[in-house]
Design brief:
Strand content: 15-25%
Number of domains: 2
Oligomer: single chain
Order of helices and strands: EEEHEEHHHHHHEEHHH
Distance between the termini: 29 Å
CATH class of the largest domain: Mainly Alpha
Helix content: 40-55%
Strand order of the largest sheet: 1-2-3-5-4
Number of helices: 10
CATH topology of the largest domain: Hypothetical protein af1432
Shape: elongated
CATH architecture of the largest domain: Orthogonal Bundle
Number of strands: 7
Structural class: alpha+beta
Mean pLDDT: 91
C-alpha cells in the first residue's frame, strides 16, 4: 500500500502507517481521563492525533523526533483534519523512506546556499561584502543556517525553511530595491540575510522542531544582534578594517525592528527606508507562504474556497478548478 501523505488524508480514512512525532503531551480531558496528544508529520505537513484512554507508558514509549506507527482514522473536526489513534507504537528509521519526511532535499539546499552567496558576494559595499564573506566561511554558522526552520508552526516550519525564507527575501530585495530612489540595495540585501539569523540558536531542529532554553529566554532578535556582533568582531580581525559604527548600528536596527511594531515583539519600530522595506518584505513572504500552506492542507478538496480559519478571520479563495 502506497503512502498517504498528510495533505492527502480524507475524512473517515483508515490510517495505518508511520509518521514523525513531535509535541507529545499526556493531557486530561473534562472527565479526568488521560489521553495522549501528538503531532504527526511528513514532508507535506502535520496533523494532530489523539489516543484516548492513554497512560504514562504510552507517553514514554517514544520521544519527539522519533518515527511512530499509527493505526486509527482521519476525521475532520472544526474544519481541520485530525487523527483519532487506536494504537501508537515506536518504529525505526529502517522502516521508512526518509525522503517522505524531508521537505527540502540536499540538492535544493545547496542550490539555495549558492544563490545566497552569489547575491552577497555581488554587493558593491566593501564592508558588507567582507562581513558576508566572514559569515559564509564560518562552517558552524552555515551548517546551522542550512538546517534551521524559520518557525516551529507559523511559516517555513521545516528543516531548511530559514534558508528558503531568507533567499526569497533577498531575491525580492534585489528585484524591488532599484525601483526606489534612496534605498540602499546592498543594505537591504544584507539585512534580509541576517534578519532572522538568531533563529539558528532560538530554535531546536535535530530532528524535531522546538525552542531552546536560550531561545525562550532571549528570543531571536536579541540572539541575532549577538551573532552579528560576533561576525563583526571576526571580520575586523581578519580584514584589519573596522566596520563603521553607523553601518553596524543600522544593521542591528534592521534586526530588532523587522517585526514592525512593538506589539509583535520588536523593541524598536523600523526607522529607515531599508528597515521599513525589510519589514514589509518579511511580512509578505511569511504571510503568503502561510496562506499557500493553508490552501494545500485544506480539507475542502473539491471546493473553490477553503474552510473558515478563525486565526486569520477568513476563508481563502483557491480559484476555480
Amino acid at each position: 500500500m502506497s503512502r498517504r501523505f498528510v495533505n492527502e488524508l480524507a475524512d473517515g480514512e483508515t490510517i495505518d502507517q508511520i509518521f514523525m512525532a513531535s509535541e507529545k503531551q499526556l493531557r486530561t480531558n473534562r472527565n479526568g481521563n488521560l489521553y495522549l496528544q501528538v503531532r504527526l508529520s511528513d514532508r507535506t505537513g502535520s496533523v494532530t492525533s489523539m489516543l484516548w484512554n492513554a497512560n504514562q507508558s504510552h507517553h514514554d514509549a517514544f520521544d519527539n523526533g522519533d518515527y511512530i506507527h499509527v493505526k486509527g482514522n482521519a476525521q475532520i473536526y472544526n474544519g481541520s483534519m485530525q487523527v483519532l489513534a487506536k494504537e501508537i507504537t515506536a518504529s525505526s528509521a529502517d522502516k521508512v523512506d526518509e525522503a517522505d519526511f524531508i521537505t527540502l532535499g540536499q540538492a535544493s539546499i545547496e542550490k539555495m546556499v549558492a544563490r545566497v552567496s552569489e547575491l552577497l558576494r555581488g554587493m558593491s559595499n566593501e564592508h558588507l561584502r567582507n562581513l558576508a564573506e566572514c559569515m559564509l566561511l564560518d562552517e558552524s554558522l552555515m551548517e546551522k543556517f542550512r538546517a534551521a526552520p524559520a518557525g516551529v508552526k507559523n511559516h517555513h516550519a521545516y528543516h531548511g525553511g530559514l534558508l528558503e525564507h531568507v533567499l526569497s527575501l533577498m531575491e525580492s530585495a534585489a528585484l524591488i530595491g532599484p525601483r526606489y530612489e534612496g534605498l540602499d540595495v546592498d543594505l537591504l540585501l544584507f539585512g534580509a540575510f541576517i534578519h532572522d539569523i538568531g533563529k539558528i540558536r532560538e530554535l531546536t531542529y535535530s530532528p524535531d522542531l522546538g525552542y531552546s532554553t536560550e531561545g525562550q529566554l532571549l528570543g531571536h532578535l536579541v540572539l541575532g544582534v549577538s551573532i552579528l556582533d560576533e561576525a563583526i568582531e571576526n571580520t575586523e580581525k581578519q580584514s584589519g578594517q573596522k566596520i563603521p559604527t553607523e553601518l553596524a548600528n543600522h544593521l542591528r536596527h534592521m534586526i530588532v525592528s523587522h517585526h514592525g511594531s512593538l506589539e509583535f515583539g520588536s523593541p524598536k519600530v523600523p526607522m529607515s527606508m531599508e528597515a521599513i522595506a525589510l519589514h514589509h518584505l518579511d511580512n509578505l513572504d511569511a504571510k503568503l507562504h502561510s496562506v499557500r500552506t493553508l490552501i494545500e492542507e485544506d480539507v475542502n478538496k473539491s471546493s473553490d474556497w477553503t474552510v473558515y480559519f478563525p486565526n486569520i478571520g477568513r476563508k481563502i479563495y483557491k480559484g476555480s478548478k
